[in-house]
Amino acid sequence: MSPSQLASYIDHSLLKPDATRAEVKRICDEAYQYRFHAVCVNGSRVALAASLLEDSGIKVAATVGFPLGAVEGDVKRYETEAVVDNGAHEIDMVLNLGLLKQGESATIQREIRDVTEAAEGRPVKVIIEACLLTHDEKVKACKLVTMAGAHFVKTSTGFSRAGATFEDVKLLRQSIGEDFGVKAAGGIRDTKTALAMIDAGASRLGTSSSARIIDGLEPAASSDNE
Length: 226
Description:
Layout: H1 3-7, E1 10-14, H2 21-34, E2 38-41, H3 46-52, E3 59-64, H4 73-85, E4 90-94, H5 97-101, H6 105-119, E5 124-127, H7 135-147, E6 152-154, H8 166-176, E7 181-185, H9 191-200, E8 204-207, H10 210-215
Parallel strand pairs: 1-2, 1-8, 2-3, 3-4, 4-5, 5-6, 6-7, 7-8
Helix pairs in contact: 4-6, 7-8
């Protein structure tokens, strides 16, 4: 895989709560240099990232209900409307895990539909925080996400007890089929792991180690054959 091919999988992420304006500028500069698919930031940083990346072709992904997913569904809808107004091209929303575990499928679907409607056609990735779910709950979450009209299932926020695993990526891919997005995120810090996540079925990667991952490609594998 060439550097440009691998970069096209990556949402270059800066989601820590103490991220500064200078750090947002840095990740936008890196995204421009490496041509990552997107930068992923918290809602209050969307307008800044959008202004820095204007006309670059690089997307701005915004988190919604992050990192717990436990806020009211109306709040997630409002957050989505706000970040869209500020220039977001994609939405990464967190599923309400408590509602999932207590079987409130209709409420979860309505919440996801509200966010997808507010996104106005922009891709919506639903974070299921797989490390907190059983096998059956992961499969159920995938079914609800696809039925509700979102576009990706995402493994993790990176803020819980574990991030993406190869087993979870494979399970999500098997559960949703080939025509739906799977985003692996959390703990992807090197080239070998990134490539293995793609082999397992990930169509997008969320990571803050994006430059290191691209720079770690073997010279023989990184010759651009496009």
